[in-house]
From TrEMBL:
<feature type="compositionally biased region" description="Low complexity">
    <location>
        <begin position="25"/>
        <end position="36"/>
    </location>
</feature>
<feature type="signal peptide">
    <location>
        <begin position="1"/>
        <end position="29"/>
    </location>
</feature>
<keyword id="KW-0732">Signal</keyword>
<dbReference type="InterPro" id="IPR006059">
    <property type="entry name" value="SBP"/>
</dbReference>
<dbReference type="Pfam" id="PF01547">
    <property type="entry name" value="SBP_bac_1"/>
</dbReference>
<dbReference type="InterPro" id="IPR050490">
    <property type="entry name" value="Bact_solute-bd_prot1"/>
</dbReference>
<protein>
    <submittedName>
        <fullName>Sugar ABC transporter substrate-binding protein</fullName>
    </submittedName>
</protein>
<feature type="compositionally biased region" description="Polar residues">
    <location>
        <begin position="37"/>
        <end position="47"/>
    </location>
</feature>
<feature type="region of interest" description="Disordered">
    <location>
        <begin position="25"/>
        <end position="59"/>
    </location>
</feature>
Length: 471
C-alpha cells in the first residue's frame, strides 16, 4: 500500500506503511482455486468436530463471535478477506468472525471511540512501525500463550524480529512491502545507448544513467522530492550503508550530523543541482509509464498498477535493487513496511481470536498465496512455507520481478524504525532545506541534530527503545 494513500497511519513510530493466489499440484481433483477437494473436506470435517467440541458426550462449547476490523484497501484485498472469513465461519460453528471494513479516513475516530467505550474489536490491522508503541501502552496482547511455536518458526528471520518484543510475539505479519525499488524503461535505455538488461547498481552509475536519459521533455530519474519523502525512503540505506539511524540505538542522542549523513544529503543534492530529477513529484508510476521520467525509485506497491492500469507497458519495464554507494545488494537498501493483525488487550475472547489468526494468517499457505497472486506480487510473503509454495507454482516462480525482489531486496531489507516520526522528519527537513534554500549541508544536519535532541528530551525517549527492552 502506497504510504501516501494512508499518511495518517504511517506517520508515527515509522511511516505507514504501509497482501496471497492458489495453485498447488495434486493428484486429487481440485476446484478452480487449485484447492484439493479431498483435503478441504477432511480439514472442514475436522474443524467442525473440534469446534463443536460435542463428541464423546462432551458438552458443546458456547458459541463465540469475535470482531475483525480491517482497513479498506484495494478491492481484491477486501474480496480476499471476505472469502476466507466466510470459509472460516462455515467450518467453525461455535466461533464466528464478524468482518468490518473501515475506510482509512474514518479509522482513527472509529477505533478510538470503540477503545474508549471499552468495546474495541478483538482483532484489527496495524503496521510494523506501530507495534512497539501499542505494546508499550498495553493495547495489544502477547500471542505466544495462545499459539504454537510452529506459527513463529515459519516466519522469515527479519520479519520475526519485527513482530517480537521482550521474547513474545505481538502481531501476525501478513505481508511486507519493500520501500524502495528501482523501476526503469527498457526502451528508453536502448534509445540512450544503455543496456536494457543492466540497471545501475551504484550511486555514481545511477547519476551517469540519469544524465544520459535526461532530455528536453524527460527527466532521467524520479525519486524523493520533499521533506516527507526524504524522511523515510532512505531508512534502508541508513541501516545497510550508513551504519546507523539518525538516533542512537538507545534513543539517547541524535547521530545525524556526521560524514555518513552528509554523503546521503549530498547524494540528493547532486541529482537536484544537475537538473536530472524533477523538483516536484510528477506522480507515481504514471510518470514512468507516460515517459515523463526514464527511471523511478518507488515502493513495490507500484507493481500492481503497472500490471493493471499499464499492463501493455509492463513488459517494457525493468525492476532492480535501489543503487547504493558500493552496489552491494546484500546490505539493506530498503525497509519492509506492511500490515499485520493484532489481538486487542481488552478482547473477551483472546484464545478464539488467536485461533482464527492461526488458521487465517499462519495456517494453510494457500490462503496467503491466493492473496499475493491476486495482487500481482506487489506485496511479499512473511512466511517460509508461503514462499516455498509459490516457488512450486511455475507461473509464480518464473515471475522475474517477484524473484528479484524476493531474492535481492526482501531478505536483506531492514525493519522500519520504532521511534517517533518527528525524529525522521528532522532529517527529511534538513535535506529539503539544503536543496531549496541552499543552506550548507552540514549546517542543515546540525540543525536537525538539535531538533532531534530536543525531541528526545521533550518525549523522554532516552532508554525507551522497545527493541532493547528484555523485561
Amino acid at each position: 500500500m502506497d504510504k501516501k494513500r494512508i499518511v495518517s497511519k504511517t506517520v508515527s513510530s515509522a511511516v505507514l506503511l504501509s497482501l496471497v493466489l492458489t495453485g498447488c499440484s495434486s493428484s486429487n481433483s481440485t476446484d478452480n482455486d487449485g484447492t484439493s477437494a479431498e483435503n478441504t473436506a477432511q480439514t472442514n470435517d475436522a474443524a467442525k468436530t473440534n469446534d463443536a467440541g460435542a463428541t464423546n458426550g462432551e458438552k458443546p462449547k458456547e458459541k463465540v463471535t469475535t470482531e475483525l476490523w480491517v482497513y479498506k484497501f484495494e478491492d481484491y484485498n477486501i474480496d480476499w478477506y471476505t472469502r476466507y472469513v466466510d470459509e472460516y465461519n462455515k467450518t467453525h460453528e461455535n466461533h464466528q468472525v464478524n468482518l468490518t471494513v473501515v475506510p482509512g479516513d474514518a479509522w482513527d475516530t472509529k477505533i478510538k471511540a470503540a477503545q474508549a467505550a471499552g468495546n474495541p474489536p478483538d482483532i484489527w490491522n496495524t503496521y510494523y512501525g506501530d507495534i512497539g508503541a501499542r505494546q508499550a501502552t498495553g493495547q495489544i496482547l502477547g500471542l505466544d500463550q495462545y499459539t504454537t511455536p510452529d506459527i513463529w518458526n515459519d516466519l522469515l528471520d527479519n520479519v520475526n524480529k519485527m513482530v517480537s518484543i521482550k521474547g513474545d510475539h505481538y502481531a501476525f505479519p501478513m505481508l511486507v512491502e519493500p520501500s524502495v525499488v528501482l523501476f526503469y524503461r527498457k526502451d528508453l535505455f536502448k534509445e540512450a545507448g544503455l543496456d536494457p538488461e543492466k540497471a545501475p547498481v551504484t550511486w555514481d552509475e545511477l547519476f551517469d544513467y540519469a544524465k544520459k536519459l535526461t532530455t528536453g521533455d524527460r527527466f532521467g530519474l524520479q525519486m524523493a522530492s520533499k521533506a516527507y519523502d526524504y524522511s523515510w525512503t532512505n531508512w534502508g540505506l541508513q541501516v545497510g550503508h550508513l551504519g546507523h539511524r539518525v538516533i542512537s540505538d538507545d534513543w539517547s542522542k541524535a547521530t545525524v550530523a556526521d560524514e555518513q549523513y552528509l554523503n546521503l544529503l549530498n547524494f540528493y543534492k547532486r541529482f537536484y543541482d544537475a537538473g536530472v530529477v524533477p523538483k516536484e513529484s510528477l506522480g507515481g508510476i504514471k510518470a514512468l509509464a507516460e515517459s515523463k521520467v526514464a527511471m523511478q525509485i518507488s515502493g513495490s506497491w507500484e507493481i500492481s498498477e503497472l500490471r493493471t492500469t499499464y499492463k501493455d507497458m509492463a513488459d517494457n519495464v525493468g525492476v532492480a535493487v535501489m543503487p547504493s554507494p558500493d552496489g552491494d545488494y546484500t546490505k539493506a537498501t530498503a525497509t519492509l513496511g506492511g500490515w499485520t493483525l493484532v489481538v486487542d488487550s481488552k478482547s473477551k475472547h483472546p484464545q478464539e481470536a488467536a485461533d482464527f489468526l492461526s488458521w487465517f494468517i499462519g495456517g494453510d499457505p494457500k490462503i496467503m498465496m491466493d492473496f499475493f497472486q491476486k495482487g500481482h506480487f506487489a506485496k511479499f510473503p512473511t512466511r517460509k512455507s508461503v514462499n516455498d509454495l509459490i516457488s512450486q507454482d511455475p507461473a509464480s516462480a518464473n515471475d522475474e520481478w517477484r524473484k528479484l525482489i524476493t531474492d535481492k531486496i526482501v531478505q536483506y531489507a531492514a525493519s522500519e524504525p520504532l521511534y517517533p516520526w518527528e525524529v525522521s522528519f528532522a532529517f527529511g527537513s534538513a535535506v529539503e532545506r539544503s536543496l531549496l534554500t541552499g543552506q550548507d549541508p552540514m549546517e542543515s544536519l546540525k540543525q536537525a541534530e538539535k531538533e532531534i535532541n530536543d525531541i528526545i528530551k521533550l518525549k523522554e525517549l532516552a532508554g525507551t527503545n522497545p527493541a532493547l527492552q528484555t523485561q
